[in-house]
Protein backbone atom coordinates (compact mmCIF):
# COMPACT_ATOMS: atom_id res chain seq x y z
CA UNK A 1 0.00 0.00 0.00
CA UNK A 2 1.39 3.41 -0.97
CA UNK A 3 1.59 6.30 1.47
CA UNK A 4 -1.35 8.05 -0.24
CA UNK A 5 -3.43 4.84 -0.22
CA UNK A 6 -2.64 4.36 3.47
CA UNK A 7 -3.66 7.95 4.18
CA UNK A 8 -6.91 7.54 2.19
CA UNK A 9 -7.81 4.33 4.05
CA UNK A 10 -6.99 5.84 7.42
CA UNK A 11 -9.07 8.93 6.56
CA UNK A 12 -12.05 6.73 5.70
CA UNK A 13 -11.64 4.65 8.86
CA UNK A 14 -11.25 7.67 11.15
CA UNK A 15 -14.33 9.37 9.72
CA UNK A 16 -16.27 6.16 10.32
CA UNK A 17 -14.94 5.76 13.86
CA UNK A 18 -14.83 9.39 15.01
CA UNK A 19 -17.52 10.93 12.76
CA UNK A 20 -17.19 14.24 10.96
CA UNK A 21 -18.61 17.04 13.07
CA UNK A 22 -18.54 20.58 11.75
CA UNK A 23 -19.39 22.23 15.06
CA UNK A 24 -17.54 21.88 18.36
CA UNK A 25 -18.75 19.22 20.76
CA UNK A 26 -17.58 17.54 23.96
CA UNK A 27 -16.20 14.05 23.43
CA UNK A 28 -16.80 11.09 25.74
CA UNK A 29 -14.24 12.39 28.27
CA UNK A 30 -15.38 16.02 28.06
CA UNK A 31 -12.71 17.39 25.71
CA UNK A 32 -13.78 20.13 23.29
CA UNK A 33 -13.52 18.51 19.87
CA UNK A 34 -14.25 19.40 16.23
CA UNK A 35 -13.87 17.90 12.78
CA UNK A 36 -12.76 14.31 12.91
CA UNK A 37 -11.71 13.92 16.53
CA UNK A 38 -9.56 17.09 16.74
CA UNK A 39 -9.06 17.66 20.46
CA UNK A 40 -9.11 21.44 20.79
CA UNK A 41 -8.47 21.41 24.54
CA UNK A 42 -5.15 19.56 24.29
CA UNK A 43 -4.02 20.06 20.69
CA UNK A 44 -5.69 23.28 19.53
CA UNK A 45 -4.94 24.31 15.97
CA UNK A 46 -1.74 25.39 14.23
CA UNK A 47 -1.04 28.91 13.02
CA UNK A 48 -1.41 27.66 9.44
CA UNK A 49 -4.84 26.20 10.25
CA UNK A 50 -5.88 29.44 11.95
CA UNK A 51 -4.79 31.47 8.91
CA UNK A 52 -6.65 29.08 6.58
CA UNK A 53 -9.84 29.49 8.64
CA UNK A 54 -9.37 33.27 8.75
CA UNK A 55 -8.92 33.44 4.98
CA UNK A 56 -12.13 31.45 4.46
CA UNK A 57 -14.01 33.60 6.97
CA UNK A 58 -12.81 36.82 5.31
CA UNK A 59 -13.95 35.49 1.94
CA UNK A 60 -17.40 34.73 3.36
CA UNK A 61 -17.67 38.20 4.96
CA UNK A 62 -16.66 39.99 1.74
CA UNK A 63 -19.09 37.91 -0.31
CA UNK A 64 -21.92 38.56 2.13
CA UNK A 65 -21.28 42.31 2.21
CA UNK A 66 -21.18 42.37 -1.58
CA UNK A 67 -24.60 40.75 -1.65
CA UNK A 68 -26.25 42.62 1.23
CA UNK A 69 -24.84 46.16 1.13
CA UNK A 70 -25.98 48.04 -1.97
CA UNK A 71 -23.19 50.61 -1.83
CA UNK A 72 -20.44 48.07 -1.15
CA UNK A 73 -18.75 48.23 -4.56
CA UNK A 74 -18.59 52.04 -4.49
CA UNK A 75 -17.15 52.36 -0.98
CA UNK A 76 -13.51 53.41 -0.63
CA UNK A 77 -11.18 50.76 0.77
CA UNK A 78 -10.93 52.17 4.34
CA UNK A 79 -14.71 52.04 4.70
CA UNK A 80 -14.81 48.53 3.22
CA UNK A 81 -12.19 47.38 5.73
CA UNK A 82 -14.11 48.98 8.61
CA UNK A 83 -17.42 47.44 7.55
CA UNK A 84 -15.84 44.03 6.95
CA UNK A 85 -14.18 44.15 10.37
CA UNK A 86 -17.54 44.89 11.99
CA UNK A 87 -19.24 42.13 9.99
CA UNK A 88 -16.54 39.66 10.98
CA UNK A 89 -17.02 40.59 14.63
CA UNK A 90 -20.81 40.89 14.72
CA UNK A 91 -22.03 38.71 11.87
CA UNK A 92 -24.37 40.10 9.22
CA UNK A 93 -27.62 39.64 11.18
CA UNK A 94 -26.40 41.97 13.96
CA UNK A 95 -24.54 44.34 11.62
CA UNK A 96 -27.70 44.75 9.53
CA UNK A 97 -29.33 46.37 12.58
CA UNK A 98 -26.92 49.34 12.23
CA UNK A 99 -29.42 50.88 9.81
CA UNK A 100 -28.44 54.52 10.38
CA UNK A 101 -24.76 53.72 9.91
CA UNK A 102 -25.42 51.73 6.73
CA UNK A 103 -27.65 54.51 5.36
CA UNK A 104 -24.93 57.07 6.11
CA UNK A 105 -22.37 54.91 4.29
CA UNK A 106 -24.69 54.69 1.31
CA UNK A 107 -24.90 58.48 1.21
CA UNK A 108 -21.13 58.86 1.56
CA UNK A 109 -21.49 60.56 4.96
CA UNK A 110 -18.58 58.79 6.60
CA UNK A 111 -18.47 61.06 9.66
CA UNK A 112 -22.09 60.22 10.47
CA UNK A 113 -21.44 56.52 9.81
CA UNK A 114 -18.59 56.61 12.35
CA UNK A 115 -20.74 58.45 14.87
CA UNK A 116 -23.53 55.89 14.46
CA UNK A 117 -21.09 53.00 14.88
CA UNK A 118 -19.78 54.51 18.10
CA UNK A 119 -23.29 55.16 19.42
CA UNK A 120 -23.96 51.49 20.10
CA UNK A 121 -23.74 48.74 22.66
CA UNK A 122 -21.22 47.06 20.35
CA UNK A 123 -18.83 50.04 20.61
CA UNK A 124 -19.00 49.95 24.41
CA UNK A 125 -18.31 46.21 24.37
CA UNK A 126 -15.29 46.25 22.04
CA UNK A 127 -13.69 49.49 23.27
CA UNK A 128 -10.59 50.48 21.29
CA UNK A 129 -11.58 48.32 18.36
CA UNK A 130 -14.61 50.55 17.76
CA UNK A 131 -12.37 53.64 17.86
CA UNK A 132 -10.04 52.15 15.23
CA UNK A 133 -13.02 51.24 13.06
CA UNK A 134 -14.54 54.72 13.46
CA UNK A 135 -11.22 56.23 12.37
CA UNK A 136 -11.31 54.04 9.23
CA UNK A 137 -14.92 55.03 8.56
CA UNK A 138 -14.01 58.73 8.77
CA UNK A 139 -10.92 58.49 6.55
Describe this structure as you would to a colleague.
There is one protein chain. With 139 residues, this protein is mainly alpha-helical. It is 65% helix and 9% strand. It folds into two domains: 3-39, no CATH class; 47-138, Lysozyme (Orthogonal Bundle). It is built from eight helices and three strands; from the N terminus they run H-E-E-E-H-H-H-H-H-H-H. It has a three-stranded antiparallel beta sheet with strand order 1-2-3, with no helix packed on it. Helix 5 packs antiparallel against helix 6 and helix 6 (110-118) packs antiparallel against helix 8 (128-138). The longest helix is centred in the middle third of the chain and has 22 residues, at 47-68. It starts with a helix and ends with a helix.
Helix and strand topology:
Layout: H1 3-18, E1 21-26, E2 32-35, E3 38-39, H2 47-68, H3 77-90, H4 92-95, H5 99-106, H6 110-118, H7 121-126, H8 128-138
Antiparallel strand pairs: 1-2, 2-3
Notable features of this structure?
single chain, 139 residues, Lysozyme, 3-stranded antiparallel sheet, mainly alpha, 8 helices, 2 domains
CATH architecture identity of the largest domain: Orthogonal Bundle
CATH topology of the largest domain: Lysozyme
Largest sheet report: 3 strands, antiparallel
Give the CA-CA distance, first to last residue: 60 Å
- The number of domains: 2
What is the 3D shape?
elongated
Rg over CA atoms, rounded to whole Å, is: 21 Å
| Number of alpha- plus pi-helical segments | 8
What can be said about this structure in brief?
The chain has 139 residues and is mostly helical.
